[in-house]
Write a structure and sequence with these properties.
single chain, 223 residues, mainly alpha, Arc Repressor Mutant, subunit A, 10 helices, 70% helix, TetR/AcrR family transcriptional regulator, DNA-binding, HTH-type_TetR-like_transc_reg, HTH_TetR, transcription
């Protein structure tokens, strides 16, 4: 996710335990501030004041506020991966349509239970770097979807990258629900499932026909 991002938008990972503890406290407080004040009230001076730290001690790890936000997004994606992989066997046993429905249901539960993650992943990009980070987030989700959905079935390799596009579609539906209602509602959950299945179906049906089609043998010439 950090590829091609401005270095100022990337956290500087500490190596010493004391520094790691401070790094974690900053992220925990940043998450609380996001939930309480949203992006408009989010800043490094505000975080430093809440923790009783100097601004410099926060900037030492996070050169800009976007470095904090990108680090949080990375962690939320790891949490979301854990949700999916903990149910890997269940998802692999389903047909791809039911698999998408189940993945969307798990994603809805995750977003609705994590307001800061919902804000950062669905809230929309605010800078060029956050836009690039967001696009990498969707690519990451698409790659995750490919690993979940591809078991036991053939997925086209692309281009286009159909699983990333499918993740883009689901995210767009989630984002609309978040904008209108502040959460993912059942109606928008169902809309995401319908839209994602409708998008993938032609690709998977075509791929299935290609896989099932018998190979034509060239007839031998008579001597």
């Amino acid at each position: 996710m950090d590829d091609a991002l401005d270095p100022l938008a990337i956290a500087k990972q500490p190596t010493q335990q004391r520094a790691k503890d401070r790094f974690e406290r900053i992220l925990q407080e940043a998450e609380k501030l996001l939930i309480e004040a949203g992006l408009s009230g989010f800043s490094i001076p505000a975080i430093a004041e809440r923790l009783g730290y100097t601004r410099g001690s926060v900037y030492a790890y996070f050169p800009t506020p976007y470095a904090i936000l990108n680090e949080l997004v990375k962690r939320y994606l790891v949490e979301l991966e854990t949700v999916f992989y903990s149910r890997a066997e269940e998802l692999r046993a389903l047909g791809w349509r039911e698999g998408i429905a189940r993945v969307v249901e798990h994603a809805v539960k995750f977003h609705n239970a994590n307001p800061a993650a919902r804000l950062l992943i669905l809230g929309g990009a605010v800078t060029d770097d956050s836009y690039r980070a967001q696009e990498r987030t969707n690519k990451h989700l698409g790659d995750l979807g490919r690993r979940v959905w591809s078991s036991g079935r053939a997925l086209p390799k692309g281009p286009p990258d159909v699983t990333t596009l499918c993740a883009d579609i689901g995210t767009a539906v989630f984002r609309r629900s978040f904008f209108e209602h502040g959460e993912i509602t059942p109606a928008y959950r169902d809309a995401a499932i319908t839209a994602m299945i409708g998008f993938l179906a032609p690709y998977l049906d075509t791929q299935a026909r290609k896989t099932a089609a018998p190979t034509k043998k060239t007839p031998k010439k008579s001597k």
